[in-house]
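Sequence only, no structure available. Ideas?
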Amino acid sequence: STPLFDLVEDSARATLLAACTGVCDQENLGSVVRNCLALGAGGLLLDTQCADPYSRRVMRVSAGAALRLPIVETGELARDLAWLKHERDFRLVATVLDRDATPLEHATVHQRSLLVFGNEGYGVEDSMLQICDDRVTLPMQNEVDSLNVGVASGIFLHHYDRGRTAARESL
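Reply:
I predicted one. C-alpha coordinates follow.
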Protein backbone atom coordinates (compact mmCIF):
# COMPACT_ATOMS: atom_id res chain seq x y z
CA SER A 1 0.00 0.00 0.00
CA THR A 2 1.23 3.50 -0.88
CA PRO A 3 1.14 6.33 1.69
CA LEU A 4 -1.30 9.07 0.66
CA PHE A 5 1.27 11.87 0.82
CA ASP A 6 3.59 9.93 -1.52
CA LEU A 7 0.74 9.54 -3.98
CA VAL A 8 0.29 13.29 -4.43
CA GLU A 9 3.83 14.51 -3.72
CA ASP A 10 4.55 14.57 -7.45
CA SER A 11 1.76 16.91 -8.53
CA ALA A 12 2.45 16.35 -12.23
CA ARG A 13 1.77 12.62 -11.93
CA ALA A 14 -1.26 12.67 -9.68
CA THR A 15 -3.74 14.91 -11.46
CA LEU A 16 -6.40 12.24 -11.88
CA LEU A 17 -7.12 9.93 -8.97
CA ALA A 18 -9.90 7.49 -8.15
CA ALA A 19 -11.38 6.24 -4.91
CA CYS A 20 -13.62 3.29 -4.14
CA THR A 21 -15.91 2.99 -1.18
CA GLY A 22 -17.35 -0.42 -0.42
CA VAL A 23 -16.47 -2.09 -3.75
CA CYS A 24 -16.45 -5.58 -2.30
CA ASP A 25 -16.65 -7.78 -5.40
CA GLN A 26 -13.12 -8.85 -6.34
CA GLU A 27 -13.83 -8.91 -10.07
CA ASN A 28 -15.29 -5.40 -9.96
CA LEU A 29 -12.31 -4.08 -8.01
CA GLY A 30 -9.91 -5.80 -10.40
CA SER A 31 -11.64 -4.06 -13.32
CA VAL A 32 -11.45 -0.68 -11.59
CA VAL A 33 -7.74 -1.17 -10.86
CA ARG A 34 -7.01 -2.11 -14.46
CA ASN A 35 -9.07 0.83 -15.77
CA CYS A 36 -7.21 3.24 -13.49
CA LEU A 37 -3.83 2.12 -14.79
CA ALA A 38 -4.96 2.01 -18.44
CA LEU A 39 -6.82 5.32 -18.42
CA GLY A 40 -4.42 7.69 -16.74
CA ALA A 41 -5.22 7.65 -13.02
CA GLY A 42 -2.17 8.31 -10.87
CA GLY A 43 -3.51 6.17 -8.05
CA LEU A 44 -6.48 4.61 -6.29
CA LEU A 45 -7.73 5.08 -2.73
CA LEU A 46 -9.70 2.25 -1.12
CA ASP A 47 -11.65 2.19 2.12
CA THR A 48 -11.61 -0.80 4.46
CA GLN A 49 -14.92 -2.10 3.05
CA CYS A 50 -13.32 -2.78 -0.35
CA ALA A 51 -12.02 -6.18 -1.42
CA ASP A 52 -8.32 -6.88 -0.93
CA PRO A 53 -6.59 -5.31 -3.95
CA TYR A 54 -3.79 -7.89 -3.73
CA SER A 55 -5.99 -10.99 -3.60
CA ARG A 56 -5.45 -13.58 -6.33
CA ARG A 57 -8.79 -12.80 -7.99
CA VAL A 58 -8.23 -9.02 -8.10
CA MET A 59 -4.70 -9.55 -9.39
CA ARG A 60 -5.94 -11.87 -12.13
CA VAL A 61 -8.77 -9.59 -13.27
CA SER A 62 -6.52 -6.53 -13.15
CA ALA A 63 -3.89 -8.40 -15.21
CA GLY A 64 -1.35 -7.49 -12.53
CA ALA A 65 -2.19 -3.76 -12.63
CA ALA A 66 -2.51 -3.78 -8.82
CA LEU A 67 1.27 -4.21 -8.66
CA ARG A 68 1.91 -1.17 -10.89
CA LEU A 69 -0.81 1.26 -9.78
CA PRO A 70 -0.20 3.15 -6.53
CA ILE A 71 -2.95 2.05 -4.14
CA VAL A 72 -3.74 3.71 -0.81
CA GLU A 73 -5.74 1.59 1.63
CA THR A 74 -7.27 3.79 4.31
CA GLY A 75 -9.57 3.46 7.28
CA GLU A 76 -10.29 7.20 7.00
CA LEU A 77 -11.36 7.70 3.39
CA ALA A 78 -13.61 10.69 4.12
CA ARG A 79 -10.81 12.45 6.01
CA ASP A 80 -8.30 11.68 3.25
CA LEU A 81 -10.65 12.95 0.54
CA ALA A 82 -11.20 16.16 2.50
CA TRP A 83 -7.42 16.58 2.82
CA LEU A 84 -6.96 16.12 -0.95
CA LYS A 85 -9.73 18.64 -1.58
CA HIS A 86 -8.55 21.34 0.82
CA GLU A 87 -4.78 20.85 0.88
CA ARG A 88 -4.06 19.58 -2.65
CA ASP A 89 -6.85 21.31 -4.60
CA PHE A 90 -8.48 18.17 -5.99
CA ARG A 91 -12.03 18.48 -7.32
CA LEU A 92 -13.98 15.53 -5.86
CA VAL A 93 -16.49 13.95 -8.22
CA ALA A 94 -19.07 11.45 -6.96
CA THR A 95 -20.24 9.04 -9.65
CA VAL A 96 -23.94 8.51 -8.96
CA LEU A 97 -27.25 7.19 -10.23
CA ASP A 98 -29.31 10.35 -9.94
CA ARG A 99 -31.43 12.09 -12.56
CA ASP A 100 -30.53 15.44 -10.96
CA ALA A 101 -26.78 14.85 -11.29
CA THR A 102 -24.76 16.34 -14.14
CA PRO A 103 -24.70 14.04 -17.18
CA LEU A 104 -21.13 12.94 -17.91
CA GLU A 105 -21.04 14.65 -21.32
CA HIS A 106 -21.72 18.01 -19.59
CA ALA A 107 -19.33 17.53 -16.67
CA THR A 108 -16.53 20.04 -16.29
CA VAL A 109 -13.12 18.39 -16.16
CA HIS A 110 -10.63 20.02 -13.80
CA GLN A 111 -6.87 19.60 -13.90
CA ARG A 112 -6.90 17.86 -10.51
CA SER A 113 -9.88 15.51 -10.28
CA LEU A 114 -10.66 12.57 -8.05
CA LEU A 115 -13.51 10.25 -9.07
CA VAL A 116 -15.37 8.43 -6.28
CA PHE A 117 -16.91 5.06 -7.16
CA GLY A 118 -19.40 3.44 -4.80
CA ASN A 119 -20.57 0.05 -3.70
CA GLU A 120 -22.22 -2.25 -6.22
CA GLY A 121 -25.58 -2.20 -4.42
CA TYR A 122 -26.01 1.19 -2.78
CA GLY A 123 -23.48 3.46 -4.53
CA VAL A 124 -21.55 6.26 -2.88
CA GLU A 125 -22.66 6.66 0.72
CA ASP A 126 -24.11 9.96 1.95
CA SER A 127 -21.09 10.88 4.09
CA MET A 128 -18.90 10.72 0.97
CA LEU A 129 -21.44 12.61 -1.14
CA GLN A 130 -21.29 15.50 1.33
CA ILE A 131 -17.54 15.89 0.77
CA CYS A 132 -17.72 15.80 -3.03
CA ASP A 133 -17.86 18.95 -5.15
CA ASP A 134 -19.77 17.42 -8.06
CA ARG A 135 -22.22 14.60 -8.72
CA VAL A 136 -21.93 13.13 -12.20
CA THR A 137 -23.99 10.38 -13.79
CA LEU A 138 -24.06 8.21 -16.89
CA PRO A 139 -27.52 8.65 -18.42
CA MET A 140 -29.12 5.27 -19.13
CA GLN A 141 -31.43 4.27 -21.95
CA ASN A 142 -33.86 1.44 -22.63
CA GLU A 143 -34.92 1.06 -19.00
CA VAL A 144 -31.44 0.00 -17.85
CA ASP A 145 -30.90 1.43 -14.38
CA SER A 146 -27.13 1.11 -14.01
CA LEU A 147 -23.86 -0.34 -15.23
CA ASN A 148 -21.39 -2.53 -13.40
CA VAL A 149 -18.90 -0.37 -11.43
CA GLY A 150 -16.01 -1.86 -13.44
CA VAL A 151 -17.59 -0.81 -16.74
CA ALA A 152 -18.74 2.58 -15.45
CA SER A 153 -15.30 3.37 -14.02
CA GLY A 154 -13.75 2.87 -17.45
CA ILE A 155 -16.19 5.32 -19.05
CA PHE A 156 -15.73 7.97 -16.35
CA LEU A 157 -11.94 7.63 -16.28
CA HIS A 158 -11.72 7.86 -20.06
CA HIS A 159 -13.82 11.04 -20.09
CA TYR A 160 -11.80 12.73 -17.34
CA ASP A 161 -8.43 11.66 -18.76
CA ARG A 162 -9.36 12.96 -22.23
CA GLY A 163 -10.65 16.20 -20.70
CA ARG A 164 -7.39 16.77 -18.83
CA THR A 165 -5.37 16.05 -21.98
CA ALA A 166 -7.45 18.49 -24.03
CA ALA A 167 -7.09 21.19 -21.36
CA ARG A 168 -3.28 20.76 -21.30
CA GLU A 169 -3.06 20.91 -25.09
CA SER A 170 -5.05 24.15 -25.21
CA LEU A 171 -2.57 25.94 -22.94
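The helical segments are 4-9, 26-38, 56-61, 77-87, 126-131, 149-169.
Hope that gets you unstuck.
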